[in-house]
Amino acid sequence: xxxxxxxxxxxxxxxxxxxxxxxxxxxxxxxxxxxxxxxxxxxxxxxxxxxxxxxxxxxxxxxxxxxxxxxxxxxxxxxxxxxxxxxxxxxxxxxxxxxxxxxxxxxxxxxxxxxxxxxxxxxxxxxxxxxxxxxxxxxxxxxxxxxxxxxxxxxxxxxxxxxxxxxxxxxxxxxxxxxxxxxxxxxxxxxxxxxxxxxxxxxxxxxxxxxxxxxxxxxxxxxxxxxxxxxxxxxxxxxxxxxxxxxxxxxxxxxxxxxxxxxxxxxxxxxxxxxxxxxxxxxxxxxxxxxxxxxxxxx
Length: 299
Hints:
Low-confidence stretches: 12-36, 43-47
CATH superfamily of the largest domain: Metal-dependent hydrolases
Structural class: alpha/beta
CATH class of the largest domain: Alpha Beta
Mean pLDDT: 83
CATH topology of the largest domain: TIM Barrel
Oligomer: single chain
Strand content: 25-35%
């Protein structure tokens, strides 16, 4: 997979405990929030290659730290291994003698952006989405197979857009293996993935086989606990519940099932994230310990 023509390969970075540039706090905080990554974007410049040197200095670019501070024109970013050690002007950041110097002139150096709601087992369009099941030109099973076969195309698309970290908030079991698959690939994004959604809803058409399925059941508290354990065993980075309006009669039992998922998530050291667009359901999710509501509340 080739790097994007206008974006440098994703560089995995972590903040250093000591920095010498006046802008280091903003860019380090943003880098940590973006799974510690930096994007180098050019308007009409030739591609930057992945760097192999231990110390790399990006020199001459316009550095935007993400805090709202003024950009630093002709700035410097020094990276030592997986640590950002200096961000600022040429005067503030001396380039080490052993550094590999990368000319970033004509480019912008920014913290990597985070897309906090993606689905690798959907394409974002009709062909891979549950609401596209009736589209004859995009057979769901075949589309699902094609998505699993080549998720690198989406990872590269994100990187080409300056996105260096994504949160897959629900998908087929194979998506839980993407974090390990992409982590050491500088031409792919960092990934966190929640895996199959736990829900009271029933959509049989999405259950193709033992590897291609979107939902796990929560018809009772016990069933919900088992589903949550199953997600954790897959290696998911969070536990996701798809929680829709269930009506007054079923609400107490489903709220209890949701609470059970929350307990299992905490026991596994995972965040509970919830799709709950109704106000009552959103409140139930928060009572269950939800760390994140993945959509706005409509009420």
